[in-house]
Amino acid sequence: MKLGKLEKIKDLRSVWKHEATDFTTWLSDEENLATLGEEIGIDIELLSTEAKTGSFSTDILAVEANTNNKIIIENQLEATDHDHLGKIITYASGHDAKTIIWIVKEAREEHRQAIDWLNEHTDEEINIFLCKIELWKIGNSEIAPKFQVVSSPNNWSKTVKRSLDNEMSATAMLQYDYWTKVKDEIDKNYPTFNSRKPIGQHWYDIAIGSSLANISLHVIARRNEIKVVLWIPDSKELFDYLYNMKDEIESQLGYELDWISSDNNKSSSIVIVKNADVHNEFKWDENIKWHLTKASEFYEAFSERVKNFK
User: Fold this and answer.
1) Amino acid 153: pLDDT
2) For the chain, which terminus, N or C, has the lower number of CB atoms within 10 Å?
3) pLDDT tier, 162 (very low <50, low <70, confident <90, very high otherwise)
4) Among residues 144, 166, 129, 161, which one has the least CA distance to residue 44?
């Protein structure tokens, strides 16, 4: 078997020229925050970008989905410096954040030691992460981002593993139980869909026969919302192609959609949202029926159009 060779892209700015308009915008995308969250071990939900802290602006303000504790994320596409170390403390104080994530190109040893010291000497509720962001590819493949935790709170990995194994949070357990019922319903009544193993996270993906897009079901417990999304991770051309058929698609579906795209993000999405009592298990059958009915309608409306895209 012939294996490819990993090649590291040393110049991050060849992909993200500007921290605020390019990298922060990219990172604020739901799927990219989820990738960061998976590396760290928490479920991150975006609140805002460039959130004001007095006369300063925090790159990303978010919350931990399982606890609603505030998270601040500071981005630096260079080596760590004293200025940004001061910023993360200022921003965390201004937003009363419990979790601080400092994302950098390179972590200087003195700043790694500073983060270790802060984690050792601050309240155990405060968690500070220093993370590297790297770019890799194999041959002519697409460039892929990789987060690497350089410094984290003491015993964090053990704590996360223990919580996942023994004491799953209330929100994660709710999500896991809900998607388990969704999977059971798919297996019984929706043969078009390939069911997948449920996980305690806020989304559940359904393939539509193309790697360019998929249907994603969402449960946003904090906002009592459920969503169905046509998720297009990396094709503005496909989004534009579908948008040109907007009136035709919405007429077929019988309802309007939110068409979400940004010049600064590779990803785009087409969405329908419903307010729902996601915490009340007696409402789950109703919510699941809505989720899978809309998913079926999305499948009918988008599957062939996506496959026909050239």
Assistant:
1) 82
2) N
3) very low
4) 129
For the stretch 168-206, pLDDT in tens is 567 778 888 999 999 999 999 999 898 887 877 788 889
Asked if 144 and 184 sit in the same domain, the reply is no
d(CA 270, CA 122): 43
Q: Is residue 1 part of a domain?
A: no
Indicate the pairing of strand 127-138 with strand 99-106: parallel
pLDDT in tens, 27-53: 998 889 988 988 888 888 888 898 887
Q: How many domains does the chain have?
A: 2
Q: Which among 89, 153, 95, 96 is positioned nearest to 121, based on CA atoms?
A: 153
pTM as predicted: 0.56
Burial (CB count within 10 angstroms: exposed 0-12, middle 13-18, buried 19+), residue 67:
middle
Torsion angles phi and psi, residue 205, rounded to 5: -95, 145
Cβ atoms within 10 Å, residue 110: 10
Do residue 141 and residue 243 come from a single domain?
Answer: no
138 and 267 share one domain: no
Other Cβ atoms less than 10 A from the Cβ of 306: the count is 21
Range 65-72 average pLDDT: 80
Distance in angstroms (rounded) separating the CA atoms of residues 232 and 257: 15
pLDDT value of position 156: 57
Q: How confident is the model over 276-292, as a mean pLDDT?
A: 94
Long-range contacts of residues 210-216, Cβ cutoff 8 Å, at least 24 apart: 210/303, 210/306, 210/307, 210/309, 212/238, 212/306, 212/309, 213/238, 213/302, 213/306, 215/295, 215/298, 215/299, 215/302
Q: What gap in Å lies between CA 115 and CA 249, rounded to an integer? A: 51
> Taking Cα atoms as reference points, which of 60, 123, 127, 116 lies closest to residue 91?
60
User: With contact defined as beta carbons under 8 Å apart, do 260 and 28 qualify?
Assistant: no
